[in-house]
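Example record used in the benchmark description.
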Amino acid sequence: MAKKQSKRILKIILIMASISSLFFVPWILLRLLLTPLPDTVQEQVNDAIGYGLNGMIVYVDQAGKPPQFYAAGWQDRKNKIPANPKALFRIASISKLYVAVAVAKLVNDNQLSLDKTLTDYMPELVGRIENADKITLRMMVQHRSGIPNYTDSPDFWINDYSKNTKESLDLVLDTPADFKPDKKYRYSNTNYLLIGDILDKTLGYSHHQFIKKEILMPLGLNHTYSLLSDVNLDDVMSGYAVDYEPDLKPNDFVSPAGSMVATAQDVGIFLRALNDGSLLNDKEQDIYSSIYVYEHTGLLPGYSSIAKYHKDIDAVVVQFVNTSGGYSWNVSEKINNRIVKILKRRK
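Model output (structure tokens):
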């Protein structure tokens, strides 16, 4: 009798805990959670705009089917221009995938060594970045260096974030390391800012040119650019922040950590090639697999992006949202999960 009563009490406690937890879930996310899954991806993309997102682009490349393009909301809110599925978008940290591929290629060509240190590559940083003599290129690629993230500095966001790489790096020079090299993982844009400089020094020319020659051109990616300044701004989807009216598109982010601009289709083609082995030869693929991931997200003020390959349904899904702040990222992630569920259901 006492045992049954204890079970009943425990059940009531669990139910009450579940109910009380709802008070801590934002209503907008709870509404999304409780909304039935629609029948099509386009319906889901249309519905997403009702959750505070200004515009959305989705590209789906599923094996055995032609690529599919979806869009809803605004490309330019002020001028009432509808979202265009083939518009250029600021892909932010998805750029890191391209830089990591460049590293793998140069390591395979013996132009770079993953085991050389930051001191070996950039001796001028001795005494300016803690543990520079112990931090290897591998650790930087993998975000295990302990070098502080310059975008965490409040000074980075003063006025705007259109800073050159030197101005950005200056924000973390002579500051303590976050942790000892290779002891933890902590995402830091500074790693890739430094990798960009290392690539430039090694090549003797801009790594942007290398990426174009070795990655973009072989894949026929004619709508991918290294910098916002390479394109006509009118072709780029506008970016908005919650409770902030102006278009954030003009603020240029020049770091190798996230400067690239591309269409969803170009990102999808790249991601497919990275995952199916057609971009890299066997040795390069082994190197890449040992240092970095095969999917990525991106965040900049006004922009969020998700690029993933789903092996179980052999599908690449690229999602662009031109809204940041508030619960926009949480909504974007949940919408992306729902889109993948729709794809799995219709497979």
